[in-house]
Design goal:
Strand content: 5-15%
Bound molecules: nicotinamide-adenine-dinucleotide
CATH class of the largest domain: Alpha Beta
Oligomer: single chain
Structural class: alpha/beta
Distance between the termini: 68 Å
Number of strands: 13
CATH superfamily of the largest domain: NAD(P)-binding Rossmann-like Domain
Order of helices and strands: HEHEHHEEHEHEEHEHHHHEHEHEHEHE
CATH architecture of the largest domain: 3-Layer(aba) Sandwich
CATH topology of the largest domain: Rossmann fold
Number of domains: 2
Length: about 450
């Protein structure tokens, strides 16, 4: 007699399995692309009906994900989006890509994961594989997801399969697509691991199976903690070297010529994005349950959160050089997104800079070629809907100081240098894209 696992493996191997993706955002959409390219049919589920309508109409709402992809998927009949969860019962594999933020007390907020899993449990049937891709703390798949799924009355590893496979997508990175990044897979049990590997190896360049969900969960948090800690280190060094009259960017570029033992990280105005400022605190939270502290994470958080203040001091200094006060000065922030060449503003330090500068009485505008209007941010709702200022020589001349917060390639830095009174550069953008200028105060 053919087992449920064998039936599912056959569907995965002959690509007749239907792949369901829950959460159609920065992670979910590239994953769908990977599966459609690998010859599967995909169904996307999102609670946001506007996103569902937009996708079914062949239109993307994320700048670096072309509408052409979406309309090709829809036209080929290989993809449809829905906000009707019952349709996901058709899917043989369900990949969960929903947000995992922090709550107001900076503890993990698993609301979206729990809600997704509750919906899956309602229609869970024999022969389905459920995989969590959202970043979280070790133990989530086993301790949070499994008890909810158990309510469906099926047996994990026999009737249905459960795994964790962290997403490593790097939006805006032209060198790596979802399909091109090696993927960790941790199954709840041996059968779940086998099925999950069979699913991912069809679409992703390389699969690295690990011995448990917990190892895969921990590895993802370690990857992002490593970045947070290293960024904090160079942010701290930036302040020290600044006092010593040494350019930290030159130092890092020199150090990175060592072919081993050093990986370059660069300083900036603070941390942004949905991952690096948040994920390490998932680990801190779980460590506290073991009465342990994550001192590196706390220290890195403290240093990175303090960076906007340092940058604002540099703006004060730059204006002071021109015998001007911050109060009443006009400041143009270049870059609202948290990193170059994307439209994602989540957790962006630009909003903190904006708020701090205004608190000193500055009149602040922003320009961002990727973010035509400021999105609504939970912590900075006052900026929602404010429009990006179009820049030209005449416009740049009107500002007392231009503050570079994000180094988007699309900005004409030559024009900015030629027309700005003074520039505070927290990304070393002018040197990178234009060259040295005595109008620049590095921050
Ligand atoms: N963005 C990145 O660069 C990146 C990289 C690696 C990992 N991750 C992780 O991936 C996860 C998703 O991140 P993202 O950037 O794609 O988020 P996102 O906000 O872009 O997308 C999440 C989507 O989930 C939807 N959603 C919320 N609750 C839902 C539910 N119950 N059912 C179905 N859909 C629901 C939202 O409407 C949204 O469209 C997070 O855990 C994040 O940490 C993100």
């Amino acid at each position: 007699m053919t087992t449920t696992k064998e039936t599912l493996l056959k569907k995965l191997n002959d690509r007749t399995a239907k792949v369901g993706v829950m959460g159609l955002g920065y992670v979910g959409l590239p994953l769908i692309q990977a599966y459609i390219r690998a010859g599967f049919t995909a169904i996307g589920y999102d609670v946001d009906a506007k996103k569902v309508d937009s996708l079914n109409a062949g239109s993307s709402y994320i700048e670096h994900i072309p509408s052409q992809w979406i309309s090709d998927w829809v036209k080929s009949g290989k993809f449809s989006a829905t906000s009707d969860m019952n349709r996901l019962s058709d899917a043989d594999a369900i990949l969960i890509c929903v947000p995992t933020p922090l709550n107001e007390s900076r503890d993990p907020d698993l609301y979206y994961v729990e809600e997704s899993v509750k919906l899956i449990a309602k229609t869970l049937r024999k022969g389905q594989l459920v995989v969590l891709e959202s970043t979280t703390y070790p133990g989530t798949t086993r301790d949070v997801m499994l008890p909810i799924l158990d309510k469906a009355g099926l047996t994990v590893g026999e009737d249905y399969f459960l795994a964790y496979s962290p997403e490593r997508e790097d939006p805006g990175n032209a060198d790596y697509s979802s399909a091109g990044i090696p993927k960790l897979v941790g199954g709840y049990d041996a059968a779940s691991a086998e099925v999950a590997v069979a699913l991912y190896e069809k679409a992703i360049v390389k699969i690295i199976p690990v011995s448990s969900c917990e190892v895969a969960e921990a590895a993802k948090v370690v990857e992002n903690t490593y970045r947070s800690v290293n960024i904090a280190m160079v942010n701290e060094l930036k302040i020290i070297f600044d006092k010593m009259g040494i350019d930290v960017w030159e130092v890092i570029n020199a150090a990175k010529t060592k072919p081993f033992g050093f990986q370059a990280f660069f300083p900036g105005p603070g941390l942004g994005g949905h991952c690096i400022p948040i994920d390490p605190f998932y680990l801190s939270w779980v460590a506290r349950k073991y009465s342990l502290q994550t001192r590196f994470i706390e220290l890195a958080g403290e240093i990175n959160i303090g960076m906007p203040k340092w940058v604002v001091q540099k703006v004060l200094f730059a204006l002071n050089k021109q015998k001007k006060a911050l109060n009443g000065s006009r400041i143009l922030i270049l870059g609202l997104a948290y990193k170059p060449d994307v439209d994602d503003c989540r957790e962006s330090p630009s909003f903190v800079l904006w708020e701090q500068l205004e608190s000193y009485g500055a009149k602040v505008d922003y320009h961002d070629p990727h973010c035509p209007s400021a999105p609504k941010m939970r912590e900075h709702p006052q900026f929602a809907g404010i429009k990006s200022v179009a820049i030209s020589p005449e416009v740049i001349k009107q500002y007392d100081c231009v503050l570079i917060a994000t180094d988007h390639k699309k900005v004409d830095y030559k024009m900015v240098v030629e027309n700005a009174k003074i520039i505070v550069d927290s990304r070393n953008a002018i040197e990178k894209f234009f060259g040295a200028s005595d109008k620049v105060v590095k921050a």
